[in-house]
Amino acid sequence: MGLEPSFSVLLARHPPVLGAEGQCYGRRDVPLAPGWERFVTRWGGQGAVYASPAQRCQHAAAFLAGGAPVQTDARLLEMDFGAWEGQNWSAIPREALDDWAADPFGYQPGGGENIEALIARVTAFWRDLLSRAENCRVVTHGGPLRVMRALAENRAFQIEDPAPPQGETILLHFFNNNGAFVAQNHPLR
């Protein structure tokens, strides 16, 4: 007999978006690409649905919830890229990108949010989520998912941590290990 998980968390990145190729769009509302529903029908999971306030996450979360309420949480928003939002990455001055590369955690791209602030707010959400110890699903963006995956693996976030592709999920099963929850990762495609 195998050990049953105490609870499971499905982490989902919003489905693919339309018309934002090569753009820094961060918190800017961009529409979901046609056919986005087919991604969400594969997600599954159980329990409450939490989502970023961004429309691309709200639409997917509402579809996933199937009429149940969606709990919106601003801590799940994508990183704020300030004046860079809506610009093509190729139009952002090279020296600004070099400044960000020199100080990846502290630099505020476009005068927006830095990675330290992203980590702090996502960590606060994560701690609240784990304190509930219940099945749930989270629909958010690449930045917050990168942080949550590091937290699930009980390690510090690293700049090179990849985000799942748009429309993909990570299923985490949490097991109680003498009062401390330990995650086991199951990527879904």
Characterize this entry briefly:
This protein is an alpha/beta fold. It contains 5 helices and 8 strands.
Q: How would you portray this structure in words?
A:
Strand 3, helix 2 and strand 4 form a beta-alpha-beta unit. The two termini are 27 Å apart. It contains 5 helices and 8 strands, in the order E-E-H-E-H-E-E-H-H-E-H-E-E. The strands form 2 sheets. Strands 4-3-6-1-7-8 form a 6-stranded mixed β-sheet, sandwiched between helices. Strands 2-5 form a two-stranded antiparallel ribbon. With 189 residues, it is an alpha/beta fold. The mean pLDDT is 92.
Record the SSE blueprint.
Layout: E1 7-13, E2 23-24, H1 37-40, E3 48-51, H2 55-65, E4 70-72, E5 87-88, H3 94-102, H4 115-132, E6 136-140, H5 142-152, E7 169-177, E8 180-188
Parallel strand pairs: 1-6, 3-4, 3-6
Antiparallel strand pairs: 1-7, 2-5, 7-8
Number of strands: 8
N-end to C-end Cα span = 27 Å
Mean pLDDT: 92
Spatial sequence of strands, sheet with the most strands: 4-3-6-1-7-8
Structural class by secondary-structure content = alpha/beta
Instruction: Note the run of SSEs as H and E.
Output: EEHEHEEHHEHEE
Reported for the largest beta sheet, the result is: 6 strands, mixed
Number of helices: 5
Q: Give the helix level as a range of percent.
A: 25-40%
Overall radius of gyration: 17 Å
Which blocks of ≥5 consecutive residues have pLDDT under 50?
none
